[in-house]
Amino acid sequence: MKDVFDALEAGQNEFLKSMTDATAWSPSDRVVAMQAQFTEFSNMSELMLRALTSHFNTISTTHKARAQKNVDALGHLAETVKDHHADGSLMDYWQSYWTDASQRMVLTLDTLRRRGDIFLEHEAAGCPPVLIYDYEVVVDGADLPRPCNYMLLKIVPPADFPVKEWKRPYIIIDPRAGHGAGIGGFKPDSQVGVALKDGHPVYFVGFKRMPEKGQTLADVTHAEASFVRTVMDLHPDAPKPVVTGNCQGGWATLLLAAMNPDLTGPIVLNGSPVQTWSGKVGENPMRYNGGILGGTYNAMLYSDLGHGVFDGADIVQNFELLNPARNYFGKYYDLYSKVDTEQQRFLEFERWWGGYFLLNEAEMKWIVEQLFVGNRLAKNEARLEPGRSIDLKQIRSPIIVFASWGDNITPPQQALNWIADTYADEREIAIRGQRIIYMIHEQVGHLGIFVSSKIANKEHSEVTSTLKTIEALAPGLYEMKIDDYEGPLLDRTFTVSFHERKIEDLQTLDDGRDDEVPFAAVARNSEQQAEFYDVCVRPWVQAGVTEKSAELRRQIHPLRVQRAAFSSQNPMVAPLAEWAQRVRGERKPAGSDNPFVQAEHITAAIVEQSLDLYRDVRDTMYENMFFAMWGTPYMRWFGRTHQPGRTLKRKEDLRALPAVQSALMRIDEGGFCEAVIRMLILLADSRGNVRRDRLERSAHVLTNDEPFKSLTVDERSMILNEQNLIVEFARDEAVSSLPKLLKTKKDRELAAKVVQYIPGAIDEMAPHTLEMLQTFHEVLGLPPVASDITEDPLQTSEPTSRTPKSATTPPPVPVMAEATGSVAPAKAEPPRKRSPAPRRGKSANEPAE
């Protein structure tokens, strides 16, 4: 027994000794530890203070100005009423207003009745796409090896918009975020309409209301890849199709392009959330929902209540809560105040807004877990299916990102910050042969990006018209700007410019990334909640849900009830049709100068402002509650395992990439095409920007003149990328090796003339541009530049033959280019099929697009 006590005593002494050694911190260590804790508390307090300051500034400035405007309007109205009372006309105005208001109320209620009827008819028909164009089903996803509810639709062009089959096809993917498909083409001035007017074949990726049993997002991505291949087979003479993704369709397009990097042409992301933790403090409250309302388990619970199916009406309701003033009052008052002209527009939009679609539990869980709460796509941790990671660096197609400062669902930071999280800097973007172009609108809202006629006629139209220029740009990061315009309203043309940007430029769009740290704790907590729910709660929920109970829950959803209850099936509502018809025959609208009409407008403005004030106060509480819950030092420690992002390459490691080494090994290989492109890159690097006329000359030479005309789009792109790598990493050798590419005096003289022709007159050149031209002449053994080249040398001389393909066609490796500054749209590109005879009725000099 004594041995036992001796052993215990020895163990106790050893334990105390180890504790003494472990806790023998110096005072400086304790100070450092306390300082770290205070720093984290300070960070949390600073975030909360920034949020409060931003919200209070918005409330104090915006609402003060709006309140003052309403007060001024009331003062003016009081004077008007006083004058009308004095001259005895006030009662006449009242009678006129009462008649008008009563008639408008009947017409408004009848419009809501018609909305209810349309809702029921739309659901009975399976909620087909709301496209205004006729369409044909080309591929039904249900017939594919991995069935899904997606469909490839071919838009039947109107008679006045004939399609040219050799032009680049457009594929538009609409968001499946609670609503149905068709928002990208539900009116003439839309994404579909813009492409059709330009003669492009247009295809639409739609979907049915109910997903296939067991359908996953991997099945959807496989189906979309099959759709793209089908379109390419239908248009063998056209360039690769453009794929446009709207909102949630944008990240779906990224998945498609990342998993099939050789499949698509340029991809366009419109208002698409990718870096979902990002946003500005005090401005973007939707991103806090996961931390306030719950994470992934919510999607799992609601799916279980739906018998394995998530109801899209819940997503739509969440959207409506973002802006209660607009969704619960403003849009109805707009209808009421302009019921004579707004009925059709209201009904068309509500047909789409009220078409509620469903998602499988696996789909909804992936979206929440991988994107909105976990943010795994931007961190290179997302998996589409077991063993298949999604790497956005694998995308080889040009990426065009359209965002807006007025978008409260996908702010610019969520649309753009993934670029900074994926690439070490803009040089890596170029090294990998990638072109990323972004455009930020100042004020259009989220839905306006897809449905606004102004946006369609300006931004979407210019993106369509400049795609050839975008593909001809040197790889890199650019901002696209639409500067000024020419011509009348209906035929207006804009000047588009592309400005070289750095990753730091993207970072300045944000107010810092410290506010993203608490989201890591939310992500970890969400995973733990989901695991607990799956093991301990889910079996009980699923045991109590049947197919019928799930359908009943969907039918009694408030958004469905408010439409179905106010339809002709309700005997109390049905008489509205007859009353409205009678009112239209006796319509007597009041004038805008009627003081009671003015009083109505002021009252509506006050109500709308009150709801906006409620929203702003609510958002302030949400944001500060989020930071108070998830921004504490403990929560920062708790989320540390989920905080790290993608490991980025160091700048000094970029030269060691296989693409760079492959290009440098071929620095002495090539011919006329390689030499001219290399010199143009060196010239662009020396001047930093390119004017519109210079870009047009460059694009014309590289696409319409031999020997460049005989290059395919892929060949031209590979040469451009490879020569850019050479210039970036071996600039001096790139210049000194030019004689090895241009072996004859004739080729050297012609190449020098072509390169001098593009920047224009000598007296318009910047000094460094002229200096670079003189360097070319010196290296090639030519006399100094002395006179202008005013005509295209390749049009006035016999074309130089291409170097044999074995020497000029570089291996298909990702490469880089030196970006130019401000550039503008280029002329059209010839068709890929390079036959001297015109095809399909196309004139011999008509370019492909």
UniProtKB/TrEMBL annotation:
<dbReference type="Pfam" id="PF11339">
    <property type="entry name" value="DUF3141"/>
</dbReference>
<feature type="region of interest" description="Disordered">
    <location>
        <begin position="786"/>
        <end position="849"/>
    </location>
</feature>
<dbReference type="InterPro" id="IPR051321">
    <property type="entry name" value="PHA/PHB_synthase"/>
</dbReference>
<dbReference type="InterPro" id="IPR024501">
    <property type="entry name" value="DUF3141"/>
</dbReference>
<dbReference type="InterPro" id="IPR029058">
    <property type="entry name" value="AB_hydrolase_fold"/>
</dbReference>
<feature type="compositionally biased region" description="Basic residues">
    <location>
        <begin position="833"/>
        <end position="842"/>
    </location>
</feature>
<feature type="compositionally biased region" description="Polar residues">
    <location>
        <begin position="793"/>
        <end position="808"/>
    </location>
</feature>
<protein>
    <recommendedName>
        <fullName>Poly(3-hydroxyalkanoate) synthetase</fullName>
    </recommendedName>
</protein>
